[in-house]
Amino acid sequence: MIGKNAITNYLKFSGHKAIDCKVALIDCDGILFDSMKNHTRAWVKLMKKNGIKCTRDEFYLYEGMTGAAIIKLMFKKGAGKNITDDEAWELYKVKGRYFKELGEVPVMPGAQAMLETLRDAGIERVLVTGSREPSVLERIDVEYPGLFSEKRVTAHDTKHGKPNPEPYLKGMAKAEAKPNQCIVVENAPLGVQAAHAAGCFTVGITTGPIAEKELAKAGADIVFKSMEDFVATLPELIQDFKDTSK
Fold first, then answer.
1. Cα(195)–Cα(179) distance, rounded to whole angstroms?
2. In this structure, are residues 207 and 41 in contact, taking their beta carbons and an 8 Å threshold?
3. Is the pTM of this model over 0.90?
4. pLDDT for position 133
5. Which of 7-11, 61-65, 233-237 has the lowest mean pLDDT?
6. What count of Cα atoms within 13 Å lies in the side-chain half-sphere of residue 150?
7. Whose CB has fewer CB within 10 Å in the chain, the N or C terminal residue?
8. What band does 28 get if pLDDT is binned at 50, 70 and 90?
9. Which residues of 204-233 are buried (b: 16+ CB within 10 A; e: fewer)?
């Protein structure tokens, strides 16, 4: 089956004997919503207003970091300037306003089918995101009613954003699960790094301009070219997990 080699390699290097998949820890931007296009536009507008040169693709690589961390990084790199936490969060509010002005983002094609497949397999779905954008987070229960656990991790819950494993460790703690009982669904290198460091079987999905090989290099155990490809393979992957736990 498709997932066999990925699962075997994960078990070999993680030290686990099986994947007893009970929980799926799921990112938001680029997985549930096709929101990264607008995020990158808002980031570029904020930086240009502050005299910092950048490209949109650059921000796909920073996805998963907290907004304040991205701003500190960009100001240091682009202007040689250290800014305080308070200054960073004030700038992040401006970025949030720019993001909202771009209009409502669409749901990610295939995301509902992914969540329904996980639900039907008895796997709990837990949100783990570095975002704190109310306009996106508040839509989860509207667009995906009954498909998410109330156990959620957002930027409000963590001190360290991705690639630090803290967000996924907190997600596991809220779900009362161990690493070999969790899979992670991510679309960005920093999120993949965080999930890998937390010890979870990590699925990378290319829903933006980042190449598949970059997700693999970041530590993804298996990579899919699109959400639709992942959804088509997910029942088989779940069965592979069950086979290892027999």
1. 9
2. no
3. yes
4. 74
5. 61-65
6. 0
7. C
8. very high
9. bbbbbebeeebbeebbbbbbbeebeebbeb
Same-domain check for residues 202 and 120: yes
Give the span between the Cα atoms of 69 and 63, in whole angstroms. 11
Q: What is the largest CA-CA distance in the chain?
A: 58
- CA–CA separation, 190 vs 142, rounded Å? 28
3-class SS letters over the chain: CCCHHHHHHHHHHHCCCCCCCCEEEECCECCCECCHHHHHHHHHHHHHHCCCCCCHHHHHHHECECHHHHHHHHHHHHHCCCCCHHHHHHHHHHHHHHHHHCCCCCECCCHHHHHHHHHHCCCEEEEECCCCCHHHHCCHHHHCCCCCCCCEECHHHCCCCCCCCHHHHHHHHHHCCCHHHEEEEECCHHHHHHHHHCCCEEEEECCCCCCHHHHHHHCCCEEECCHHHHHHHHHHHHHHHHHHCC
CATH number for the domain spanning 9: value is 3.40.50.1000
Structural domain that includes position 47: 36-101
Residues 111 and 179 in one domain: yes
What are the residues whose beta carbons fall under 8 Å from the beta carbon of 157, sequence distance 6 or more? 167, 170
For tokens 């999120």, the residue is 191
Separation between Cα atoms, residue 95 and residue 93, nearest integer Å: 5
- Residue 191 dihedral angles phi and psi, to the nearest 5°: -65, -40
Judge contact between 11 and 19, C-beta under 8 A.
yes
